Amino acid sequence: MRPRTWVLLLAALFALMQLATVEGRDTPDSKNYVSYALSLTGADEREAAAATIDHYCAGRAAMAHRAQLVDVVRFHAPDPAPRVLEECLEQEWRQVEARLAAGDTGGRTVPFMPERFMRIFEVRPGYPLVLAPFVALLGVTWGVWTAGVLITCAGGVLAYLVLRTLAAPVPLALTGMALYLVLPCGTTAMRPMTEGLMLALTLAALWGCALVLGGTRPRAGLALVGGALFALFTVKHSQALFLGACLAAAGVAVAVRRRWRGTPAGRGPVALAAVGCAGVLGTVLVSRLLDYPSVSESVQDLLTDHFARPDRERPWAEFFQLQGNFWMEWARRQLWEPLFLAALAAGALGARRRPAFGVFLAAAACTGILNQAGHPDINIWGDRLITLAWLLPVLGVPLLLEPVLRRAVVPAQGAPVEPVG
Q1: Which of 17, 40, 227, 310 is most buried (most C-beta within 10 Å)?
Q2: 12-24 per-position pLDDT tens digit
Q3: Number of Cα atoms under 13 Å in the Cβ half of residue 397
């Protein structure tokens, strides 16, 4: 079969697997994005609240039902779903009604939380804009699910395209796509959150880097990187800042290394560094111009349990103390179950086969570490914040397997394609 047929088959297989869990993927933050998307379709505040709360509570009830079926003590007890649904609806409406009555109706999102907290989501229109047409056409439940499948499959296709641009054989490019779908990237991207778009846009930026470094379509590559940074700003502006800074650092590192070895730095790394710097500068300037929540506000949000407690007087001292505690506990857990560390090591070894691109890949993966460092909460819905670091094994492991495949398969006739970097 043609490569595109294999890509479509992998995507279709992934979509079929996701039918096993249509409801129950939401996190508490998902309510904010769904209500934002509903407001973009023309729903008023109460209509958006009703549809969002019904969807969220139906997911909670579905999770309670599934958990009770395998509870070794209560599996024969009455179904808890009706009770969980009723309690969830009552709790959510009580909070929303109180804030609506207090006049908290100024934003696009339904006021599920204090206004200062909701402001964080008001400045993230990217994911709701993508979600809006799906919930308008298919309803909330199937619209959210369909959007999740398409966003996740788009990330897998981008992983395939990056590897093909790096001259990886088709089987290894398909392996990269499969890894993206089965590793935590796919699981996290399916949640109604921003991470799916963040992963896909980061891969789009890496595709642009591969095009620039390969010298085949440098202008298109630079435009792709710039477009990805712009789109990331609308999805989560801190991620645009992280990715721009990391790509700039990677471009400088590659150029300096080449100079140190006595070879020309080349226009590619320098141009990518310039685009990264422009992304950082643009993110800082526009976010200040639009009065986006500051870093200090984010730290207060973390330390006050989403502004449920008074602001901390010494937030940065407490934040850095928490950082030390967090990374010590994180390292302990990783050494206990070192799959993530082993995957990162394998990905780094594979990235060395494309030295220049490998630096940019490692830089993009580092944005996951930075994202997690900005939210040192060990219990924040699994490891979704650090998921971007999984891009290193997604793209690096197939490159690591390249010598094995080339020894196993008779090379095709014709001149080989030169690998990037």
Answers
A1: 40
A2: 999 999 999 999 8
A3: 20
Contact between 192 and 132 (Cβ < 8 Å): no
Secondary structure string (H, E, C) spanning 7-70? HHHHHHHHHHHHCCCCCCCCCCCHHHHHHHHHHHCCCCHHHHHHHHHHHHHHHHHHHHHHHHHC
DSSP 79: P
Tell me which of 4-13, 173-182, 246-255, 410-419 is least confident.
410-419
Tens of pLDDT along 245-276? 999 999 999 999 988 888 887 889 999 999 99
At 137, which amino acid appears? L
Residue given tokens 């094994």 in the structure block: 393
| Own/partner long-range contacts of 128-132 (Cβ < 8 Å, ≥24 apart) | 128/33, 128/36, 128/37, 128/39, 128/40, 129/37, 129/40, 129/234, 130/197, 131/33, 131/34, 131/37, 131/192, 132/37, 132/38, 132/40, 132/41
Q: Which two tokens stand for residue 227?
A: 């477009």
pLDDT in tens, 34-64: 999 999 999 988 999 999 999 999 999 999 9
Say how far apart CA 391 and CA 38 lie, in whole Å.
Answer: 31
Q: How confident is the model at residue 406 (pLDDT cuts 50, 70, 90)?
A: confident
For residue 100, CA distances in Å to 116, 140, 347 come to: 15, 22, 49
DSSP states along 392-419: HHHHHHHHHTHHHHHHHSPPPSSPPPPP
Using the predicted structure, report yes or no on whether residue 413 has a pLDDT greater than 80.
Answer: no
Do residues 401 and 335 touch, judged by C-beta distance below 8 A?
Answer: no
pLDDT digits (tens, 9 = 90+) for 70-111: 988 888 889 999 999 999 999 999 999 998 888 777 788 998
Residue 410, judged by CB atoms within 10 A of its CB (0-12, 13-18, 19+), counts as exposed
Cα separation, 365 vs 184, whole angstroms? 14
Q: Which residue reads 């870093």 in tokens?
A: 295
Contact (Cβ atoms closer than 8 angstroms) between residue 251 and residue 269? yes
The amino acid occupying position 254 is: V
- Spatial CA neighbour of 381 closest among 151, 191, 180, 149: 191
Q: CB within 8 A of 107, min separation 6: which ones?
A: 115, 118, 119, 122
